[in-house]
Amino acid sequence: MPPEAGVRVTWSRRADWSTVAAVALTVALALGGLLYHGQRLADEQVQAQRRLAVAETRHNAHLFGQTLSAVELSLRGLLQAAAQDASDEARAQRLREVLHNAPHLRSLSLLDRQGLVVLSSNPANLGVKVDLRGFLPDADGGEPLLRVGRAHVGRDLVDGVLAGGDAAVDLGFVPVLMGGGAAGPGVVATLNVDFFLNRLMARESDTAWAVDLLRWDGALLLSTRDADPAAWRRANQALVRRWQDGADIGTLLQPMGEQGTWITAYRSDHARPFAVVARVDEAAALAGARAEVRRQAWIVTPLIGLAALALLGGYGMFRRATLRRMRVQAEQVEQQARLLDALPAAVLLFAPNGRALQINQAWRDMARDAALPAALLGGPHYEALGALYQGDDPDAPTLGQGIAAVLAGQADDYQGSFHGSASAGPRWYRVLVRPLQRDGRRCALLLQMDVTAQRRSAEALRLNSRVFAINAEAIVITDAHNRIVSVNPAFSRITGYGADEVLGRTPSLLASGQHDTPFYRAMWTQLLEQGSWAGEIINRRKSGECYTQWLTIHVDRDAEGRPLHFVGLFQDITERKRAESQLRLLGAALDAADNAVMITDSRAVIEWANPAFSRLSGYSLQELVGRRPQDLLSSGDQRPEIYALMWRTILAGEVWRGEMSNCRPDGTPYHVSQTITPLADEHGSVRHFIAVLEDISERKARELELRRLATTDALTGVLNRRAFLEALEEELVRYQRHRRVGAVLMLDLDHFKLINDRHGHAAGDVVLAQVCAVARERLRRTDRMGRLGGEEFAVLLPDTTREGAAVLAETLRHAVAGQDVSTAAGPLNVTVSIGVAAFGPTERETTPLLGRADRALYQAKDEGRNRVVVAQDAAATA
What does the pLDDT read at residue 852? Predict the structure, then answer.
């Protein structure tokens, strides 16, 4: 269909949807207005009920607050009168007088300090004990306060039971207390719950409502409800949390389980421990508003429907008349459009003003493919069209200039080659412009032919020829009879034969004679059956030298599957085969080596390891490859600075040598002497690391044993005197650098000479060894114990305060004294005296520190032995 008719039809469908949408929108707006009006009514009803609930809480809080104020005055007066009246009769008379004018009270009773009723307006209450712990607020020991207790079921104190469970209808009274307990005698009044409920129930309302009186802790004092289910108790506890957060007054909506949502208003009294909560059933409050909305909807909705039907009917009549006119116009131009659409070339007819009068389907397809702007799809101006194309001849007139010359009568034709952009890439066109008379006006008829396929075919042929010539792999093409028809320069470079020497001959001229007839027969069988063959083959150059090549042959077949050509690609792999042989030899040598060898990439990820490395580390090659040595081998005993130095060295391209402590999968530690050599590429960047490792575990074990023998006391296993003093000097250096605390213990066995004299030196040696064992069990890994001589020992306690050292010393003293040492002479009991000295602020030498600890030790001995003495600070001693 021509573009004019297509545009009008599209407009007609849009008009349909637009009209329907407009009518639907009008109906939606009307219904929305009705819903909005209903929502406004509901909101106003909710706000009205909220204000009534707020007024209810304010009124009842005022009523209950005034009642409690009156009760407080009465109870305060009774306390003062009880102190003045001498006789119980006078006190009882006063109780009856106060109760006579107080319908809100059930009874008044005087309590002793233990909460026992000693006098009451209700004689049945005498002797009843009142629990003074359940009242709020808590007594502060000052002026007596009015305190409110929990609600009770029953008539009075004598039959009162603390309320609980879901029932609320049986609440009988609420006790309020003044005084009592440590403050002295008290007065308790029982508030008449029925009095307050009668006041609350007197409110008339057609809406479901409820009023609760709560203590600050959420305990229910009285309620207009018949029951107190769990949902209401949870709602009241939520209000308690609000009061605790400081929200004394407020309103909110609360879900009440099966009873729906209720509008809640609350007010907490600042002076008294109670709060009033008024609730209105939201559903009952909204019932009237919703009924009014339904009534209005029954009236307004039919009117809206009738109006919508009237609008749609009028539009339908208008639409039918318009479509009849559009069909008549479309029939007049349909024949011309069909002729143009049948042409394979894009056709545009330009009017004298330069605007396109008519375009065909080929142009529209081309425009969509080129992703032209929407403004150019319907009827572009020739200047806009000319701006889209660039001419292949920069000296020729542009497309816009050529069309303008034809329209102005300055030229009878115009043609040229152009290119432009499209979604699939650039495209090339051949354009021809001729004049055409239409309705007495000179127009320009443009024919545009897409020549992209021809252009690309020529370009692909040129490119393939270039690739064929510069390919690094040798290419040889033979015909169906295996005669060479083409070779590339790489073929001549590898074989030594020029193209003129091999054309028309078969590739057999390259045969080396090292492959037998079955080899070639198998190659041809696979090639003809599967269409390709690839493998190694040894051929001979023109010079007579044999070389190894990797040859790939593909079959080019015609439409019936008959071979047309054979295309062979090969590369000289002689050097690679020689390098592979050398690598195999090197690999065999490394596999046979006793030293462990490992190769990693630049990120220290293992790429290869020899069998000796697997035997040393305990990991198989499969477990090692792809992992980092630090993740698998690290024992955790190596200092971080050693790793830092190693990485700085090898990343700088230098060889690193050192010793490492590693760990096998089963946890067995071992030591290695390790050499790491970085390997750089031609640009100097490190690409691999080669590590050679030698197991030095036996040597390290011998060195460790020698160090142990040089630093350890052979009898007790603790440090000898020289090793202990060196450790103490090192700790003092760290103390001065970091200002950390520390302390020293001096220990001496009491009466040890008597043990040697009575039981022999063998028994004495057993005692020394056992005492050291007991002490070492109670020391940390960082603590050091040394034997200074004979039965005298010292303990170094890093990061320990003087107080902490004293506690440890007492622990050691008790542990030594609490055990019997088994010897050949029988069990022996020994004790130890201990001196404690803490590091001083300027402590630099071991001698003063040990001297202070030694003086404290001898002070312990002078004071009776088997005790701990803490030396004074270094500053105090000085």
Answer: 92
Q: Three-state DSSP class for 179?
A: strand
* Dihedral-angle region of residue 54 (phi above 0 means left; psi in -120 to 50 means alpha; beta otherwise): alpha
Tens of pLDDT, residues 290-321: 777 778 778 878 888 888 788 878 777 877 77
3-state secondary structure of 85: coil
Is the CB of residue 174 less than 8 Å from the CB of residue 149? Answer: yes
Closest by CA position to 835, among listed 814, 815, 865, 790: 865
Counting DSSP H helices and E strands in the chain, the numbers are 25, 35
pLDDT at 374: 64
CA dist., res. 763 & res. 774, Å (int): 17
Q: To 10 degrees, the CA torsion angle through 248, 254, 257, 260? A: 140
pLDDT at 866: 92
- Strand boundaries in 502-545, DSSP class E: 532-540
Helix, strand, or coil (residue 161): strand
What SS3 class is residue 164? coil
Distance CA 175, CA 105 (A): 10
Q: What are phi and psi of 88, to 5 degrees?
A: -65, -30
Tokens of 13: 């469908």
Alpha carbon distance 300, 283 (integer Å): 25
What are the two backbone dihedrals, phi and then psi, of residue 261, each rounded to the nearest 5 degrees? -100, 140
Which distant-in-sequence residues (6+ apart) come within 8 Å of 536 by Cβ? Answer: 548, 549, 550, 551, 573
Q: Which of 47, 65, 68, 45 is nearest to 265 (CA)?
A: 47
What band does 423 get if pLDDT is binned at 50, 70 and 90? Answer: low
137 preceded by cis ω (within 30°)? yes
Q: Quick one: average pLDDT of 818-846?
A: 86
CA pseudo-torsion sign 591, 592, 593, 596: positive
- Please pick, among 72, 731, 791, 843, the residue that the annotation labels catalytic: 791
Average pLDDT over residues 433-438: 86
- Check residue 342 and report its DSSP letter: T
Write out the DSSP string of 720-776.
-HHHHHHHHHHHHHHHHHH---EEEEEEEETTHHHHHHHH-HHHHHHHHHHHHHHHH
- Using a 10 angstrom Cβ sphere, with 0-12 exposed, 13-18 middle and 19 or more buried, the burial of residue 163 is buried
What is the percent of the chain where pLDDT is above 90? 12
Percent of the chain with pLDDT over 70: 90
Nearest CA-CA partner of 586 in 603, 608, 601, 616: 608
CB-based contact 672:693 (threshold 8 Å): yes
What torsion, rounded to 10 degrees, do the Cα atoms 578, 580, 586, 588 define?
-120
> Which 3 state secondary structure label does DSSP give 665?
coil
Region 456-476 average pLDDT: 73
β-pair type (868-870, 832-838): parallel
Distance set, CA 425 to CA 365, 393, 448, 745, 765 (Å)? 15, 20, 18, 89, 99
pLDDT over 90 at 61, yes or no: no
* Cα distance between residue 391 and residue 468, in whole Å: 31
**Of 157-166, 181-190, 633-642, 805-814, where does the model show the most confidence?**
805-814
Q: Please, which contacts does 581-590 make with residues 24 or more away whose CB atoms are closer than 8 Å?
A: none
Closest to 120 in 3D by CA, of 55, 190, 33: 190
Residues 269, 148: Cα–Cα separation, whole Å: 13
Asked if 91 and 83 count as a contact pair (C-beta separation under 8 A), the reply is: no
Instruction: Kindly report, residue by residue over 741-779, the tens digit of the pLDDT.
Output: 899 999 999 888 888 888 888 888 888 888 899 898 989
CA distance 102 to 192: 10
- Could you confirm whether 791 is annotated as catalytic? yes
Q: 135: helix, coil or strand?
A: coil
User: Buried b vs exposed e over 147-158: b needs ≥16 C-beta within 10 Å?
Assistant: bbbbbbbbbbbb
